[in-house]
Amino acid sequence: MSRLLYRLGRSAALRPWRFIVVWLALVAAVAGFAGVAGGALHDDYTLAGSGSQRATDLLRERFPALSGADARVVVHADSGTVDRAKLAAAAGELAKLPHVSEVSPAQPSPDGATALITVRYAVPVTDLAPEETLDRLRSATRGLAGYQVEFGGQVPENVMAPGGLAEAIGIVAALVILFLAFGSVVAAGLPLAVALAGLGAGVSGITLLAAVTDVATTAPTLATMVGLGVGIDYALLILTRHREGLAAGMDVPEAAGRAIATAGQSVLFAGVTVLLALCGLVLSRIPVFMTMGFTTGLVVAATVLSAVTLLPAVLGLAGRRVLRRRDRAAGAAIAVGSPRVRRWAAHVGRRPWPWLLAASVLMLALAAPALAMRTWPSDASSEPASNTVRKAYDLVADAYGPGANGPLLVTVDLRETDAGALPGLGRRLAGTDGVAAVAPPVTSPHGDAAVIVVTPEYGPQDARVTGLVDRIRADALPPGAEITGLTAIYVDLSRVLSDRLWPVIGVVVATSFVMLMIVFRSLVAPLKAAAMNLLSIAAAYGVLTAVFQWGWGAGLLGLPHSVPVSSFIPLLLFAVLFGVSMDYEVFLLSRVREEWLLHGDARGSVTSGLAATGRVISSAALIMVAVFLGFAADPSLVIKQMGVGLAVAVALDATVVRLVLVPAAMTLLGRANWWLPRPLARVLPEIDPHGGAAPAAADAREPEPSRA
User: Fold this and answer.
1) Is there a contact between 453 and 385 (Cβ–Cβ < 8 Å)?
2) In which band, very low, low, confident or very high, does the pLDDT at 708 lie, cut at 50, 70 and 90?
3) Which is nearest to 235 in space by CA: 620, 689, 625, 693?
4) DSSP 104
5) Nearest to residue 557, comparing CAs of 463, 648, 670, 422?
6) Using the 8-state DSSP alphabet, how is residue 685 labeled?
7) By the 8 A CB rule, do 562 and 573 touch?
């Protein structure tokens, strides 16, 4: 494969315009096709087999008017009471809106200062344009001028804030870091341009994918965040190797070919590792997570393709302008390795045990808060105080009690339970600890089902609601009865995600281990890599718990108060982060193994490999951290928490792990780093890390795989 990559890179550098024109045509064609045939984004949170899903299915079948999206209009008078005639007129206007199936009569609060109008739609929220629908709600309630009118419920809560700021922050930060690292505008711009080309093709592909399947509304943002970070990193690694070739006296096509054959091969393996990790999301069996994995993987694959095909073409076009002006003019060699990193690696290698123990204690201390992590999906109470959905949430909580923001719906299939049992069911529900109120049952049009609305004493984010849902299911529900509503769905979703986290971890770690074993022909190195990555992820979980759940910095991120870690985060963060962290492991181990095969010096290969990759990994990590922290400004709590978690993990991975734990552990292991049993050595394929372009010393015999 390395020889094929060498020929590909050299050919692209010799004929740059052919490859550039093909890429421009590809991006334009995919974008154009997406604009014509692309689909809209839809969230699909189907939880097959759960009680809340069975109840939701019954609602869709027997209560069509209750099964679609909803919106809440909250009207508040600063003094006195709300005029009932104006409320009735507003309800009449709301009933005329498109897709509205039912508008409830205004429900005044006990003091009359607040009124609640519930608007129900005949279609799910994913079939509506939330921004347009919210504008229509505002227009229909213009007659309530003089009162405070706020909007809550599914439709207003699904209005997406304008995007682009997070991406812009990441791009500008990346450009600055690249310029400081290379001292050349051309060298700084190339990785960014190549990454954006791959990103453009991948994001357009997501729009096309949405035409044939449901794609989550947050999927493009997540894919952009990951794709932008890894895309710049992949191009940066290849560019660094290309500059080394130029410094060694190679001409531009030869340097590009060898960079693609060596660094490009590492990029391919790193990209495959990310894809394997993302494929683990399929095991969640939750459609929204599966599409997040597919879409992010699509963008990652596009950035890998652009790095190994488009980048050598633009390198051929740029010539020696990727070097600093003074280096080009003087013809001087540029620094390949980092003397400072070399000295540091040698220092750690001389005293590996103290450094290994100190770094391990630090990582475990950062991970410790994760033991207290509570996961729960976000709701309107997590929004800024200026947002209308947050204002509506607070008004409802003040006027009707906190549980009114998360009512539970008990559905009863009257083909399995006699209608005469409904009064007794209502009494049992009312007597359940934690229930504030129970509404009279509502029977379906055909009399074959009933719904009872239960108002909890607690708000939707209160930790006690899980126990309440469990008590109702265990003690109150007869056969044929189930419980749903947003709160019950959240309970089931959190449990499903928690239960499926461990199978995902097992499969992702196992498949990544197998791939690294093939690449590096070792059992020990992949095990060490997996352990280090799991430690980084655990530390990221701990920091997320402290920042968001304990509130240590929640205000700096624009949150009104501490919030639980989103139920989506542990599974999603693991899949993305394990793949991203493996990128650096592949980059570093590839260089260490080259040195090991060349010289057979276990300790010296670690020092040389770290010195050769330290600068590029540090620059890549800075870029990733900047990109991910930019997304911490995103209004979506899931994206915000993903941004913080990824930034923390990458920062720790590039400093504590790569600069301390890895050299200390590899120094202690010595030749055992590359141990492989003879039977495996005979069946595993040979992969040339030098791309067929190393000096003759590279042909030296590899140490016997069965010896440690």
Assistant:
1) no
2) very low
3) 620
4) P
5) 648
6) P
7) no
Across the chain, which distance is largest between two alpha carbons, in Å?
95
- What is the distance between the alpha carbons of residues 562 and 547, in angstroms, rounded to a whole number? 8
Pairwise CA distance, residues 504 & 282, whole Å: 8
Judge contact between 490 and 567, C-beta under 8 A. Answer: yes
What span, in angstroms and rounded, lies between the C-alpha atoms of 244 and 262?
12
- CA distance linking residue 332 with residue 485, whole number of Å: 69
Residues 334-368: tens digit of each pLDDT: 555 678 899 999 999 999 999 999 999 999 999 99
Of 232, 296, 248, 241, give the one whose Cα is nearest residue 264.
241
Q: Are strands 408-413 and 114-121 parallel, antiparallel or unpaired?
A: unpaired
| More confident position, 387 or 360 | 360
Answer left, alpha or beta for residue 670, where phi above 0 means left and psi between -120 and 50 means alpha. Answer: left
Tell me how far apart the alpha carbons of residues 561 and 549 are, in angstroms, rounded to a whole number: 9
SS3 string, 322-391, reads: HCCHHHHHHCCCCCCCCHHHHHHHHHHHHCHHHHHHHHHHHHHHHHHHHHHCCECCCCHHHCCCCCHHHH
pLDDT digits (tens, 9 = 90+) for 99-117: 999 999 899 999 999 999 9
Neighbouring CB atoms inside 10 A of 282's CB total 15
Class of residue 434 by CB neighbours under 10 A (exposed 0-12, middle 13-18, buried 19+): middle
Helix (H) or strand (E) holding 115: strand 114-121
The answer to whether residue 162 scores a pLDDT higher than 70 is no
Helix (H, G, I), strand (E, B) or coil at 77: coil
Which tokens belong to 177? 């870091």
CA 96 to chain centroid: 40
The pair of structure tokens assigned to 72 is: 């809440």
Contacts of residue 203, defined as CB under 8 A and 6 or more positions apart, other chains included, come to 220, 223, 224, 227, 299
SS3 call for 672:
helix
Phi, psi for residue 200 in degrees, rounded to 5: -60, -45
Q: Considering only CA atoms, which of 267, 244, 265 is closest in space to residue 254?
A: 244
pLDDT for 288-323, tens place per residue? 888 889 999 999 999 999 999 999 999 999 998 888
DSSP-derived letter for residue 550 is S
Q: Which two tokens stand for residue 426?
A: 């209502």
Strand 442-443 vs strand 114-121: parallel, antiparallel, or unpaired? unpaired
Task: List CB contacts of 196: < 8 A, sequence separation 6 or more.
Answer: 171, 228, 231
Residue 490 CA to residue 156 CA, distance in Å, equals 19
SS3 assignment, position 629: helix
How many CB atoms neighbour CB 367 within 10 A? 20
pLDDT > 90: what percent of the chain? 54
Looking at residues 589-593, what average pLDDT do you find? 87
**Partner residues linked to 600 by β-bridges:** none
Give kind and range of the element (H or E) at residue 436: strand 435-438
Give dist(CA 137, CA 157) in Å, integer.
13
Of 72-86, 305-319, 556-570, the poorest mean pLDDT is in 556-570
- Residues 603-659: pLDDT tens digits? 899 999 999 888 888 888 888 898 888 888 777 788 899 999 999 999 999 899 999
Residue whose entry in the numeric block shows the structure tokens 């978690």: 645
